[in-house]
UniProtKB/TrEMBL annotation:
Residues 12-95 form the GST N-terminal domain. This is Glutathione S-transferase. It holds the Pfam family GST_C_2. The keyword Membrane does not apply. It comes from Chelatococcus asaccharovorans.
């Protein structure tokens, strides 16, 4: 069932296959909030997973993945990087994909954060494998990589002095997802710079409006 979020005065012209649990979806929703586009997007809740397929979604995206955005023209766009770049391109003031000196750092930060989301998703999948088919080494390696991502970000975040960009949004959504699913990892420990930065970004209206919820 489609549900509308944001300013109800404007009729939505786009449709987003959506879940309140996906970090990739949240990245798209935070982007839409930052660009003032939420009233144009109707969200359609889907519950999917690597072994849980959805016919409606697959008709739009053969990969069965969310987020998938159906544009005003009826074209399906995926994945989250493509959708965020598209939303930036149709906004009155495109600004989340800098073209100046911050361009490559912002895209690298997005890639790093997306990779962290993939690792968190992999760990969730490992958790639901049938008993006897789980592989602890996957958790261990994923945890090590996630810690390295956080160290990388912690070492660089203080040098970020410009306006918010797509890398910041992706990183905030990845860290929030770590809290949501793997709070015991305590990513803040030993990373004061990243912690202080996150304590600011997590209170932006776009982040507050898109909090994760563990519901289908
Ligand atoms: N690279 C994709 C990743 C999207 C993704 O993995 N989404 C998960 C939910 S968090 C999904 O839809 N999984 C369903 C499946 O793998 O079939 C993106 O950036 O959008």
């Amino acid at each position: 069932m489609a549900q509308q979020q944001g300013d109800a005065e404007e009729k939505p012209t786009m449709r987003l296959f959506w879940s309140s649990r996906s970090p990739f979806v949240r990245k798209v929703m935070v982007t839409a909030h930052e660009l003032g586009l939420t009233s144009q997007i109707a969200t359609q809740r889907v519950a999917v997973g690597i072994v849980r397929l959805d016919d409606d979604l697959m008709a739009a995206n053969p990969l069965n993945k969310i987020p998938t955005l159906v544009t005003r023209e009826g074209e399906a766009l995926f994945d989250s990087r493509v959708i965020c770049a598209y939303l930036d391109s149709i906004a009155d003031e495109p600004r989340l994909f800098p073209l100046d000196k911050n361009r490559w750092q912002s895209l690298r930060m997005q890639a790093l954060a997306d990779g962290m989301m993939e690792l968190l998703t992999l760990r969730l999948f490992e958790n639901i494998r049938p008993e006897g088919k789980q592989w602890d080494a996957v958790h261990g390696a994923a945890r090590t990589k996630i810690a390295a991502v956080c160290d990388h970000a912690d070492a660089r975040i203080a040098q970020e002095d410009g306006p918010i960009h797509i890398g910041h949004i992706a990183l905030a959504c990845a860290l929030a997802h770590c809290d949501f699913r793997f709070g015991a990892d305590e990513w803040r420990t030993g990373r004061p710079g990243l912690t202080a930065w996150y304590e600011t970004i997590r209170f932006r209206p776009s982040m507050v409006a898109t909090a994760y919820e563990d519901v289908y």
